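Title: [Solved] Serine phosphatase RsbU (Regulator of sigma subunit) 3D structure

Original question kept below for reference.
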Amino acid sequence: MTDGSPATARPPVAPPAALADPERLRALADTGLEAAPDEAFDRFARLVSDLLDVPVALVSLVSADRQFFPGAVGLPEPWSERRQTPLSHSFCQHVVDVEAPMVLPDARLYPRVRHNPAIEDLGVVAYAGVPLTDLSGRVLGALCAIDSKPRAWTAAQLRTLADLAAACSSELRLRIALDGAQEARRRVVQAHERLELLAGVSETLAGTLDVGTALHRLAAAMVPLLADWCLLTLIGPTGLPREVVSVHRDPARTADVGRFGELLRTGLRPESIIRTVLRTGQPRLGGVASLADVTRGTTIPEMTSIAGRLGIASYLCVPVRGVGGTVLGAITLVNGAQRQQFDDRDLLTAVEIGRRAGQAVGNSSMYGEQRHVAEVLQHSMLPRLPVVGQLELAARYQPAADRVEVGGDWYDAFVQPDGDVIVAIGDVAGHDIEAAATMGQLRNLVRGNAFGRPDTVGALMSNLDGAIRGLRLPIAATATLVRICPQVAGVHEVTWSNAGHPPALVVRVGGAVEALNATPEPLLGLTRPSPRTSQSTSLATGDTLLLYTDGLIERRDRSIDEGFAELVGRLTGADKLPLDELCDLLLASIRHREDDTALLAVRAR
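Solution (posted by the thread starter after getting help):
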């Protein structure tokens, strides 16, 4: 087997049109596979080689210009190292083209492939290839068995190859589904970040009726979260800049950015970016920018040298509009070379910020509405606790970082149609905003899985495990699920199921603290199903049930057992504290916020 060309050169044949199908290529890209070994697909190749007794077996995926092998066994060098060949050497492209198995006892006898260089270069004589498909039936490649001598393929061998191809297709579909889930999560995270920023902007503007103070606060909110530096410009009666607020992320550049803002009021040409936006009311996006953009827009050379020190590689400029659409000013955001370039989504976010800033500057009567919008956006991150006559509920959530509104820790409480109360708490693997999308999925799954169902909490947790696996959600989380059966007068029945979560605590009347310990059960979202159990206790009038996440007890400088013991000690004798005061006291005891913390307290009345 050589790396040369066949002895009889023939004109190149155009690849089948099916190879260039955009939907097929998109599905192929979504597998995330490349010309590199992948253990799962190498395993399929080994199975084909062993079960069909062939020297070469391939999981071959065919793009518009090549075929590559995430799974391969028996390939000669240099192909074994390259894990790919051009289409000139591809038999599998014909499987994609005809969307059916191709079985060749001796490839040298078939006009379609007898001049294929793979016969000489790779020793492909006998070939059997079965399509590998996505969920829509698009053929992405082939699972193929290859022999270097003629071979009569038996029906049993072809049946085995077809069965293995079906399993291999399932693995490909799983990779595509995971890629789709990750992309959806990325979009949710980005959307959440923008909502979080807009909520913060609204709150910032709602904090004062003084225009100057509002502009300074707005600039501080956008830098460095959205840009390296920014300029907020308001125009006077003549339409020229009257007031400029400028902020840079680097405190060492405060004097430079302040001087730039001072010169901007009188040093802009009519064709400059900012004056163009002020005049036309149309936003501008410079995905790629340089000092030449500053030079063209200013009459003062000093501004160019200052911009060089501040850094400019990308910019966007949006109008600040008042009531009726009147342009009141402009917001200019600038990023240096070390930061990602602005794109259309950043522009849309900035336009919305400009709209909200315009409302605050131009119409004070809408100020209260802006604050209401901000509060709704913020409080929508966490559920509203139900009102239950026989129970008092209180909850708290504290992120690990001040700028993150919601993370992977969560709690929930809702009333069933039969009057029972479901309370839950959990902790999704990961930190900060990256875990927020997964947290939202899990919280909604808990509600959808439990509401209206009389099943035990252990059965509900088992169903939740099944939903996570069945929907192929990338969730790994601890959680505790509790059902409380309120009684009008007397003892409330409590059942709980714990999936790897810190044990709940009960503060009894009189101050004793009881831990709801049980045999540890695995986390939610593990690949293998695990039976879930239900445990029971009771709440008498005045007893308090406390659910919490590990941020309340875990520290780097001590073991979790020490943190748990400290929490028990803090709760001992705390039965007479009002519930809200108890929650605030527990959060205040956290000296260093190393992790998100959520807690939910329920007191029997």
